[in-house]
Design brief:
Chain A: Residues 24-125 form the TolB N-terminal domain. The complex is a heterodimer of chains A (429) and B (178). With 429 residues, chain A is mainly beta. Chain A is built from three helices and 31 strands. Chain A has helices spanning 54-64, 88-93, 138-154; strands at 7-9, 27-30, 36-40, 68-70, 98-106, 110-119, 124-134, 163-172, 175-184, 191-196, 200-205, 211-216, 223-228, 234-238, 244-249, 255-260, 267-272, 278-280, 288-293, 299-304, 311-316, 322-324, 332-337, 343-350, 353-360, 366-368, 376-380, 386-393, 396-403, 409-412, 418-424. In chain A, strands 1-14-13-12-11 form a five-stranded antiparallel sheet, with no helix packed on it. In chain A, strands 2-30-29-28-27 form a five-stranded antiparallel sheet, with no helix packed on it. The radius of gyration of chain A is 23 Å and the shape is globular. The longest helix of chain B has 21 residues, at 120-140. Classes of the chains: A mainly beta (429), B alpha+beta (178).
């Protein structure tokens, strides 16, 4: 009963501070050889000095996606700021396929961003828009523009306006400090949402992007919490004997799959978040953990060592049947499905170590997509184009990201301490 | 001496098997299955791991402590891919069992840990297996289950940082937290 008790903790307990920033920087580690050449001309600003370089933010976003290779600024002979100033021949000579031009002007309550996307070979305007951004929203305005450009060219919805959650850790053994953060997908605007001397792990966004579920050891044992990111209000939802871990939201946001060992070995359970009723999904003497829902909500994937080593299995709610999905190698764990449900991203132990791999569920073929070798916790962008994960750089934990096809990658190191347990938010707009 | 130790291991193993019944423990795996241990000596060697507890007290001496005091050695180490109690740590566990039997109000949290390889929630489960292995051993020794609580930390509280096998060996442990 006690375990089922909801404990509403005051937001006072939480450290909310815009000062407690732990911004991540981005280092591109591999550009895609299939990237489309594009030029994002610096936006004119009527001689004003602006707090953000909007064109640079757009350029960085597009480059990071692996879909685009932005032209370096020092290669631009001409700096048009509107479509009718564009001399297409110049850009064609530079092998640029697309061109973005624009202006930023200061308004009464913030900024106005005007941008145009030009198709260089077709010599035509593909997109043009005027966007207003609040005085602190220039970066989010740039992310919005990036989303529009990305979708206009690729046909894929942009995910630059999304956020990530991650955990920081410093120290060893009994002397450690953990933080739970949320930040923009490019690592900026980080905000600490929880601070603890006890471990924090497995954060995951609710489908509406408003809440995080995560595991915290703040009571000196593991419990699952749900926290509203905006208000800080939170509730302890699972604190049974043994492991309370690996929370995973159902696509409708009403249920949480989780790992509990209250009945012996770790098994998968589903909790109705409203009523806190539990339904047991697996029941055997092996380890069953790391559940994740299929996007259509009809099945769950999870890690189990029922065959000896960890492999990914799928439980179908309709049939009640469980099937094994992974057969390549002897360690496949922590699976996450792509938004279309057709690809499985997971941690695979290869000859090089623990790496992020993609398995196409149709063919069953597994391909390693990361170049690092101590990888953990893959989380897929809501448009399915990128996977963010935790890895090691030297002796530090950093976040890495790799395109779903493995062609492009980047890192998001932190200035200090380890960064780990990334969780990519759903679309927020 | 060796034979005696072996016989005792066997006896304990048998009683564990009885108690454990159908509850399969498999084996802890620390993220890897096939035992690609870089250094074959680390598995059973205690030199590196033993130093971590900072006491330097051998298992045998721990076993001779007076019943009124909590035994000094409060960390035991595990082989890669294993949750079985190493023979050199049995006397440590016997000493803790004696202390807990003599002090019925004493409570201990058995904190299970893994090295950092592999995924976090899976390691959480592996750390629990190790701590449960110690718990069963103590219960066979007559300790009341009500005195024992298992908490797995998985790889969340590494004792030592580093990617080498030495660091891994020092991280695969169960800590007695009274």
């Amino acid at each position: 009963m006690k375990a089922l008790m909801t404990i509403w903790l005051s937001a006072m307990l939480l450290l909310f501070s815009s000062l407690a920033q732990a911004n991540l920087t981005i280092e591109i580690t591999r550009g895609s050889d299939r990237a489309t050449p594009i030029a994002i001309v610096p936006f004119s600003a009527d001689g004003e000095s602006l707090p953000e370089d909007v064109a640079q933010i757009i350029s960085d976003n597009l480059e990071r996606s692996g879909y685009f290779a932005p032209l370096p600024r020092n290669a631009m002979y001409d700096r048009p700021s509107s479509g009718d100033e564009v001399r297409y021949g110049q850009w064609r000579a530079l092998d640029v396929r697309y061109l973005v031009v624009g202006q930023v002007s200061r308004g009464a309550d913030g900024y106005r961003i005007r941008y145009e996307l030009m198709d260089v070979s077709g010599q035509r305007r593909m997109l043009g828009e005027s966007v207003s951004a609040g005085s602190n929203e220039l970066r989010s305005g740039a992310h919005y523009v990036s989303d529009q450009i990305f979708e206009a060219i690729t046909g894929i919805r942009g995910a630059f306006s999304t956020r990530i959650a991650y955990v920081t850790a410093q120290g060893v053994d009994q002397d450690m400090q953990f933080g739970l953060y949320v930040a923009d997908a490019d690592g900026h605007n980080s905000q600490q949402v929880l601070n603890s001397r006890e471990p924090i792990l497995s954060p995951v966004w609710s489908p509406d992007g408003r809440k995080l579920a995560y595991v915290s050891f703040e009571t000196e044992r593991p419990a699952i919490y749900v926290q509203d990111v905006g208000t800080g209000q939170r509730a302890q939802v699972a604190s049974f004997d043994g492991i309370n871990g690996a929370p995973a939201w159902s696509p409708d946001g009403r249920r949480l799959a989780m790992t509990l060992s209250k009945d012996g070995q770790p098994d998968i359970y589903i909790m109705d978040v409203g009523s806190r009723n539990l339904e047991r999904i697996t029941n055997n003497s092996s380890i069953d953990t790391e559940p994740a829902w299929a996007p259509d909500g009809r099945s769950l994937i999870f890690t189990s060592d029922r065959s000896g080593g960890p492999q990914i299995y799928r439980y179908s709610f309709g049939s009640g049947q469980t099937e094994r999905l992974t057969f390549t190698g002897n360690y496949n764990a922590r699976g996450r499905l792509s938004p279309d449900g057709e690809a499985l991203f997971l941690i695979h132990r290869s000859n090089n170590g623990f790496q992020v791999a993609r398995q196409d569920l149709g063919s069953g073929r597994l391909v390693v997509i990361s170049e690092t070798r101590s990888d953990e916790s893959p989380s897929v962008a809501p448009n399915g184009t990128m996977v963010i994960f935790a890895t090691q750089q030297g002796n530090s934990g950093v976040l890495g990201a790799v395109s779903a096809d493995g062609r492009a990658s980047y890192r998001l190191p932190s200035a200090r301490g380890d960064v780990r347990e990334p969780a990519w938010s759903p679309f927020l707009n | 001496m060796q034979f005696k130790s072996h016989a005792r291991t066997l006896a304990i193993a048998l009683s564990l098997a009885l108690i454990a019944g159908c509850s399969s423990t498999g084996g802890s795996r620390d993220g890897s299955m096939d035992g690609t241990r870089a250094d074959g000596g680390v598995g059973t060697g205690t030199a590196g791991a033993g130093q971590v507890s900072g006491t330097g007290v051998s298992g045998d001496r721990a076993g001779q402590q007076a019943d009124g005091r909590i035994p000094d050695v409060r960390t035991i180490y595990f082989d890669f891919d294993r949750d079985t109690i190493r023979s050199e740590f049995e006397s440590v566990l016997v000493a803790h069992a004696r202390y807990l039997r003599s002090n019925g109000n004493a409570r201990v949290v058995l904190q299970g840990h893994t090295d950092e390889r592999g995924t976090r929630e899976y390691n959480m489960a592996l750390g629990e297996r190790r701590a449960n292995s110690v718990k069963r051993f103590l219960e066979v020794q007559g300790v009341s289950p009500s005195q024992l609580q298992v908490v797995s930390y998985g790889e969340e509280r590494l004792a030592v940082r580093g990617n080498g096998e030495d660091a891994h060996a020092q991280n695969r442990r169960v800590v007695f937290a009274y």
